[in-house]
Amino acid sequence: MRGQETRERIMEAAIQVIAEETIEGLSTRKVSGIAEVNLAAIHYHHRSKEGMLIDLSRHILNNYVLPRIEPLIDQGKQPVEITRDLYAELLKLYSERPDIMVSLVYLWLHGMKNKRVREILINARADFYDRLERALGSSMSMRRASKVSHRLLSYMAGKIMEMAVDGEMPDEKEVDEMAKLLS
To answer: Are the CB atoms for 69 and 90 separated by under 8 Å?
Structure first.
């Protein structure tokens, strides 16, 4: 239990540092100071800064993003409902924890340098594409469902990056218009 608590504090401190200073500003020393753990604890749990980033990729996906969006993919819903619900939930997560979404953007960009981070994020995205495509396929052809799911997730990723840069949140009208256009 104590080890898990330490790991959680390290992950939350890493999120804070990345959101404030980018990945380039991340160091095991900064994280240990914010998490109030000794440097040896970070090296024990993650071995290095790169190990911490790999674990952070999984942590953000498994604890913040996927638990909130996976339940929204229901094969009984119409495509416009699925689209609206997914988009609205990501916006809600961004408004509640912008540090999570900003860190995820930086991790995605860091994936160009780190093969493991890239694999974790790409595999999560591919699994989500498949689930979304199957759900959409109950209301449209699988070919169209494939196109819509890729378009939807690409649009949402771009919107999250845009919000990370300019900080502006779309209003509900924009969410509705986007849902109708994408589905």
So the answer is: yes
User: Rounded to whole angstroms, how far apart are CA atoms 39 and 45?
Assistant: 10
Per DSSP, helices labelled H in the chain are 2-21, 28-35, 39-46, 49-60, 66-69, 79-96, 98-110, 115-137, 142-166, 172-182
**pLDDT tens track for 38-74:** 988 888 888 889 999 999 999 999 999 999 998 988 7
Question: What does the pLDDT look like over 15-24, one tens digit per residue?
Answer: 999 999 999 9
Distance CA 143, CA 148 (A): 9
The alpha carbon of 177 is separated from its chain's Cα centroid by a whole number of angstroms, namely 23
Long-range contacts (CB closer than 8 Å, 24 or more residues apart) made by 94-99: 94/160, 94/163, 94/169, 95/169, 97/64, 98/19, 98/163, 98/164, 98/167, 99/15, 99/16, 99/18, 99/19
* pTM score, whole prediction: 0.86
Distance, in Å, from the CA atom of 111 to the CA atom of 50, rounded to the nearest integer, reads 11
The SS3 assignment for 183 reads coil
